[in-house]
Specification:
The complex is a heterodimer of chains A (418) and B (103). In chain A, 28% of the residues lie in helices and 22% in strands. Chain A has helices spanning 7-15, 43-55, 88-108, 126-141, 151-157, 185-198, 243-248, 312-325, 374-387, 401-404; strands at residues 36-39, 61-64, 80-81, 119-123, 147-149, 173-177, 181-182, 202-204, 209-214, 220-225, 228-231, 235-237, 257-266, 276-279, 284-288, 294-300, 334-344, 351-354, 360-364. Chain A has an eight-stranded mixed beta sheet. Chain A has a six-stranded mixed beta sheet with strand order 8-2-1-12-19-18. Chain A is globular. The termini of chain A are far apart. In chain B, the strands form two sheets. Chain B has a four-stranded antiparallel beta sheet, with no helix packed on it. A two-stranded antiparallel ribbon of chain B has the order 1-2. In chain B, a hairpin with a 5-residue loop joins strand 5 (66-72) and strand 6. Chain B is built from one helix and six strands; from the N terminus they run βββαβββ. Classes of the chains: A alpha/beta (418), B mainly beta (103). At the A-B interface, helix 10 of A face strand 3 and helix 1 of B.
Chain lengths: 418, 103
């Protein structure tokens, strides 16, 4: 029987010397076959398995993870959550997700520490102001909150911000999404894993897919893995930077390139930073974790790579901007830096779709910003797999859009630099 | 930071270069004769290889010229550099890079 968490139960376990904790999910061994298999045990994959079991009645589901749960980009991102995307299709997808974040802790009975502390996007040039205001208006037409702040108002919302005129790129204003914020990234993977496991989903770690077997009609029939052959007629791939590698096993080519994306954290300090601040123009993304570390997002390296590391000049470039915007952080020491491999599409929008191979589905192309979409993406991906038909929200996010030209071109619009 | 050997200028740091993506993609001679799938294949689909990969670089803050390189995307080691227009070395038998003993 799964432990149920409440404030009282946590206090009780604390007082009883923490001796009653149980593993939150089983160490499952692969069965010979499943109704559906998800490849990739990050937030998107675990969430999809959870919604398959919860909303579509598929209890015989497995998640295959080549490493450990949440050890990929789910544990490597900077946990920023927002939905202020320009285009209607993106706004629908990301706001679907944001609404799910707001109740996720209650739904999963697991504290994902979602904190709607506000995400502020800085403007440094006249062009930035025009673009940001356009975003504000477009978002509000789509029912997504976003508001324009003058520099003094931005400073009031985020006191450490330097709004002096004497810096190279002075702050001329900001767009603020108050419903945006952060969440605890590990807890998202663990919470989904625990909830999926409770519904009978097998979570199989250290199990790498090495081949995709297809029947005479070309449909998916089984997966070759490092832990043997596992049969399934439905396979959903949510393998982030390695999606091209997995889908190549079924002969599916994708418009993806995999780049290292780096992030870093400072030494932990007392609460000094109340919100999330992003600046595309001078490339800085910063928030403070509940542990006290300043979490800083850097950019992608220039070249494709699978090494999960990148060059130091990418990080120092970001720190240049951070030091100018927040001079009181100049003497903070940086504690760790790391990289993850992100799969980037030409239009910087994801793909959540069927492939030309029957029974094979893909959720990829999240590029530099997939964490924010975890619940919504998992939810519509499960729908797509269960019904063999996309949910209205992910219907535009096909592979075929690169043939018919119906791109969702957030590359120039996504409120982040690429 | 990668050290990149421009075939025209020699060894330089990565920040002098811009990345040009997958090498040896040939623009179709008659795009208007292609169907949408073939055109999308040329425009957007990429091998995105995990392993030995042929790619383009441009020495943007140097001679400005494009050239090609072979790099292992699992280690970021460069295996070869060659000028545009030269034949691509076979990817399964690339000679060891200077200083590289094993692969």
């Amino acid at each position: 029987m799964r432990q149920s968490f409440s404030g009282l139960s946590l206090i009780w376990r604390g007082l009883s010397r923490h001796r009653s904790w149980q593993p939150q999910w089983r160490k499952a061994d692969p069965k010979p076959g499943y109704d559906a298999i998800i490849v990739g045990g990050g937030g998107h994959g675990l969430g999809a398995a959870y919604y398959l079991a919860k909303e579509h009645g598929l209890a015989n589901v497995a998640v295959l993870e080549k490493g450990w749960i949440g050890g990929g980009n789910t544990g490597r991102n900077t946990t920023i959550i927002r939905s202020n995307y320009l285009f209607d299709e993106s706004a629908a997808l990301y706001d679907h997700s944001l609404k799910m974040w707001e109740t996720l802790s209650q739904v999963l009975n697991y504290n994902v520490m979602f904190s709607a502390r506000g995400v502020m996007l800085l403007a440094h040039t006249v062009h930035d102001i025009q673009v940001a205001k356009r975003h504000v208006h477009a978002n509000r037409c789509n029912g997504v909150d976003n508001e324009w702040l003058e520099p003094e108002q931005a400073k009031e919302f985020c006191p450490p911000l330097n709004i002096e005129k004497n810096i190279r790129y002075p702050v001329l204003g900001a767009a603020l999404q108050r419903r945006g914020g952060t969440a605890r990234h590990d807890a998202v993977a663990w919470g989904y894993a625990r909830a999926a496991d409770a519904l009978g989903v097998d979570i199989i770690e250290n199990c790498e897919v090495t081949g995709i077997r297809r029947d005479a009609n070309g449909a998916v029939e089984a997966l070759d893995t490092t832990r043997g052959v596992i049969r399934s007629r439905k396979v959903g791939v949510a393998a982030a930077g390695h999606t091209s590698v997995v889908l190549a096993m079924a002969g599916v080519r994708l418009p993806l390139e995999s780049f290292p994306l780096q992030a870093l954290v400072s030494e932990p300090v007392k609460p000094v930073f109340p919100c999330v601040v992003m600046s595309n123009t001078i490339h800085a993304y910063i928030s403070q974790s509940d542990k006290g570390e300043l979490v800083i997002g850097a950019g992608t390296d220039a070249y494709t790579s699978y090494t999960q590391r990148g060059a130091l000049h990418i990080n120092t470039h970001t720190l240049d901007a951070i030091c100018e915007l927040f001079p009181n952080f100049r003497r903070l020491r940086m504690l760790r830096n790391w990289g993850g491999i992100v799969d980037v599409t030409p239009d910087r929008s994801p793909i959540i779709a069927k492939t030309k191979v029957p029974g094979l589905y893909v959720n990829c192309g999240w590029g530099t910003g997939g964490f924010k979409a975890t619940p919504g993406s998992a939810h519509v991906f499960a729908w797509t797999i269960a019904r063999d038909d996309p949910h209205p929200i992910n219907a535009p996010f096909t592979i075929e859009r690169f043939q018919d030209g119906y791109l969702i071109d957030e590359a120039a619009a996504a409120a982040v630099a690429h | 930071m990668l050290i990149i050997v421009c075939p025209y200028c020699g060894k330089r740091p990565e920040i002098e270069f811009t990345y040009g993506g997958q090498a040896h993609l040939v623009r179709p001679k008659e795009p208007s004769q292609l169907d949408d799938e073939a055109w999308a294949e040329f425009l957007y689909m990429r091998a995105n290889t995990k392993g030995v990969y042929a790619e383009r670089w441009r020495h943007a803050h140097g001679c400005g010229r494009f050239f090609n390189a072979i790099r292992d995307t699992t280690t970021d080691h460069f295996l070869a550099f060659y000028k545009s227009g030269e034949r691509q070395p076979p990817l399964d038998n690339v000679p060891l890079a200077p200083g590289e003993r094993t692969r």
